[in-house]
Amino acid sequence: MPDMTKIDKNNQTEAATKASGDHKSIPGVTWNEDGSATIDLKQRINVSGEKKASIRMNYPSVTFMRENNEQIKTLDGENDAIAELCGIAPEETGQIGWPDYLRVQRVFSYFLGGDAPNWQMQSSASAS
């Protein structure tokens, strides 16, 4: 049986997030001012011989999308694209636990959709 207290708490958190209008808030993700996102990992991964508790994903460029558009339609292609945006080897992303990877995918999908919260334009009063 699932732990109903966890489910209820998750539903309350999700409802509060939606009510606040901050639907892009993902637990364990920091949306950086430079346009990147830092994703905390529950399980550390080994990157170039160093244990990492987080990875930083850069936003894709138009050139990146042009070169990778077809390949990101498969899990292997998506994995390679995510690895490139995070500056790690595709083999290293294989160490990411599935729950962590699902969060990584959400960040990636926000970047692909152009609606990552750190890329939202703020409206400003126009000068008359």
Summarize this entry quickly.
By secondary structure, the chain is α+β, with helices and mostly antiparallel strands. The chain has helices at residues 4-20, 62-68, 75-86, 90-93, 98-113; strands spanning 29-31, 37-47, 50-57.
Characterize the structure shown.
The radius of gyration is 17 Å and the shape is globular. It has 128 residues and is of the alpha+beta class. It has one domain (26-115). A hairpin with a 2-residue loop joins β2 and β3. Residues 4-21 have low confidence and may be disordered. Strands 1-2-3 form a three-stranded antiparallel beta sheet, covered by helices on one side. 44% of the residues lie in helices and 17% in strands. The chain has five helices and three strands, in the order αβββαααα. This is Phage tail assembly protein. Residues 1-33 are annotated as: Disordered. Residues 1-11 have a biased composition (Basic and acidic residues).
Intertermini distance: 62 Å
| Helical content (DSSP H or I, runs of 4+) | 40-55%
Question: Averaging pLDDT over every residue, what do you get?
Answer: 83
Proportion in β-strands: 15-25%
Number of strands: 3
What is the overall shape? globular
Query: SSE order, as H and E?
Result: HEEEHHHH
Describe the structure using short key phrases.
5 helices; globular
Please render the helix and strand layout as text.
Blueprint: H1 4-20, E1 29-31, E2 37-47, E3 50-57, H2 62-68, H3 75-86, H4 90-93, H5 98-113
